[in-house]
Amino acid sequence: MQVVVIGGGIAGASAAYFLADRCDVVLLEREPFCGYHTTGRSAALLTEAWERGVPALLTAGSRAFLEQPPDGFADVPLLSPLPVLIVAPPERRETIEEMASEAAVRTNVEFLVGSDLHDACRVLGSSLSVGVLERGAREIDVSALHQGYLGGARERGASIVVDAEVGAITRSADGWAVEAGDDIHRADVVVNAAGAWSDMIAASAGIEPLGLQPMRRTAFAFEPDADLSDWPMVIEVDESFYFKPERNVVMGSLCEETLMAPHDVQPEEIDVARAIDRIQAATDLRITHVKRTWAGLRTFAPDRNPVNGFDASGEGFYWLAGQGGFGIMTSPAMGRIAADQILDGEIPRDLQLLGLTADAMSPARF
Question: Using one digit for the tens of pLDDT, what is the confidence trace for 145-168?
Answer without folding.
Answer: 999 999 999 999 999 999 999 999
